[in-house]
Amino acid sequence: MAADDDTRRTRHRGAGEAPMNIGPLAPAGAGGAVLLEVRDLVKRFGGLQALDRLSFEVRAGEVLGIIGPNGAGKTALVNCITGFYACDGGTIRFRGEEIARLPMHRIGRLGIARTFQNIRLFRRMSVLENVVAAQREWVARPLRSLLVRDPEVFRRPALELLERMRLAGRADQPAGTLAYGDARRLEIARALAARPRLLFLDEPAAGMNEQETEALTGDIRLALELVDSVVVIEHDIELIRALSNRIVAMDYGRKIAEGSAESVFADPRVVTAYLGTGGD
Amino acid sequence: MIQDHLFFTGINILLAWSVYIILLSGSLSFANGAFMAIGAYLAGVLTVKAGLPLPAALPIAGAATGVLGALLAYPALRTRGVYLIMVTTGITFCVQVLLENIDYIGGVGGFGGMSGASLWQVGVLVILAGAGLWWLSRSHLQRLLDAVREDDQVARALGIDAVYLKVVCFGAGAALAALAGGLFSHYMAFVRPEHFGVLVSVYVVLYVVFGGVNNLWGALAGAVLLTLLPELIRGLAAWRPLVFGALIVILLLVRPEGLLPWRRTTIRAGPGTAEPGKRR
Predict the structure, then answer these.
(1) Domain that residue A38 falls in
(2) What part of A 22-41 touches B (C-beta under 8 Å)?
(3) Cross-chain residue pair A155–B269, CB shorter than 8 Å
(4) Who contacts B209 (Cβ-Cβ below 8 Å, separation ≥6)?
(5) Residues of A in contact with B263 (CB under 8 A)
(6) What are the tens digits of pLDDT across the range A68-101?
(7) Is residue A136 domain-resident?
(8) CATH code assigned at A241
(9) In this structure, are residues A230 and A198 in contact, taking their beta carbons and an 8 Å threshold?
(10) A34-45 and A48-59: which strand pairing?
(11) What ipTM was assigned to the predicted interfaces of this complex?
């Protein structure tokens, strides 16, 4: 099955493209090939311009942080890229392939996974089932999965992911009964089960205190080993600082700054967006 | 007499399962009375007008209705919740009026001449359908369907083609309802469009709600109890609908998740921790 999966991964690769590094993350600051390229993305809700010709890229091997005040359009951005919203303009290329008009499940199968700001687990299924249902080998072959009854096929890889996210002890518990922090980590484990190349974390530390956020930072580091690149959307400056190689700052659906943590947090436009202008 | 009751109980079990199959993917269908009607008439036309034997006519009617159901599902499933209930109820009304206006099959007057259905045939069909659903409940597909039912958007983001699964389930449910309809019409020898009014669709959904929506035994128990109980209290024949309604109301007050509400966990953390008898 492993060989099968490798061919499936290769199939989506552009013909002339260099092979992608699937190993552990490249060292900080390394500029790999462009994994995701967003150009002039536009999303409107009625009169509100949620995304206003936004452009950025995610390179293989990096952790990109996206910051911005509430309503800056961060979640709208994730929703557009993952197909939850149809965007009103612009292009999104993932590994060279245009994905802006693909149905959601096709985008997922190409290798983009996400977590949700408001946790969305399969609450009545067990923790283990949440992970197993997302396993990449079978999501694309539902009718053939009717013939798969051996739980051993799923158990070990799923338990490894749960182990990694410190949830192995809760495997048989209904997901709806998990504590908040555990639920956050289960969302990450479930996303990893889809074996994505690019993982979006939408405010993973929302509602957590300092210690919880610190622990989560370690957990996310462990998750990073399994994917090519991660985009973290977050308010928590410490988390962003600890994880990201590069930061994009947004306000009113536009990119207002981009670069290293030091340069972005020192940027007057970023300071203004967060704290308001001095005269107010 | 007893044979009649057993036959109609079997038909109702099949119909309850036809609703249950569609519910597996998270859609509630009030169109299964219509699919039963189409199967009843189609099988009747094939035996009476085309001279086919019943064992040949039945699968043809089932397959044709299944395809029709899938075709109807594609636009119908763009709606959800209450709107899907309205759309599927609308299908039931439309089919009834359609049958009333086709003179070829007797219109309002009805269509007769069918024969050859017997108790053992419905028994075989119940066993086959039950075995299929039991197999499904232990396959990986059950988990994919559970994920779709819990949150179809998240399932799609993980790469599961939720729309496809919903359409397949709708088609399968329609086919099973049509098989039940075909047997019904060949047992009754004569059917009229009014046999398949919207009440049939509602009753069948109530069997499933009464018995429990989370496993195949709930639908079975609901169909058996609600078919036979009213017969046991024949002295109250005139009050039958009232007894029926009161039973539903009482059950939903006392056991809102139905008579047999448990959901079987499809996979557990390890052979050591598996407790086959334990269900939740």
Answers:
(1) 33-119+193-275
(2) none
(3) yes
(4) B222, B248, B252, B258
(5) 124
(6) 988 899 999 999 999 999 999 999 999 999 999 9
(7) no
(8) 3.40.50.300
(9) yes
(10) antiparallel
(11) 0.87
Provide the shortest C-alpha distance from residue B256 to chain A (in Å): 16
In a domain, A141, yes or no: no
Asked whether residue A55 is assigned to any structural domain, the reply reads: yes
- Name the maximum alpha-carbon separation found in chain B: 65
Distance from the Cα of B162 to chain A's closest Cα (Å) equals 8
The minimal CB distance from B139 to the residues A134, A146, A168 is found for A146
Cβ B119 vs Cβ B6: under 8 Å: yes
Contact A145 B139 (CB under 8 A): yes
Q: Can you give the pLDDT at residue A16?
A: 37
Say if CB A76 and CB A54 are below 8 A apart: no
Chain A contact for B155 (CB, 8 A cutoff): yes
Domain layout of chain B by residue ranges:
2-197
Q: What does the buried/exposed string (b/e) look like for B148-187 if buried means 16 or more CB atoms within 10 Å of the residue's CB?
A: bbbbbebbbbbbbbbbbbbbbbbbbbbbbbbbbbbbbbbb
Number of domains into which chain A is organized: 1
- DSSP, collapsed to helix, strand or coil, labels residue A254 as strand
Q: Could you tell me if residue A161 is inside a domain?
A: no
Reported as a pLDDT band with limits 50, 70 and 90, residue B274 is very low
User: B158 contacts in A (CB within 8 Å)?
Assistant: 105, 108, 113, 133-134, 139, 190-191, 193-194
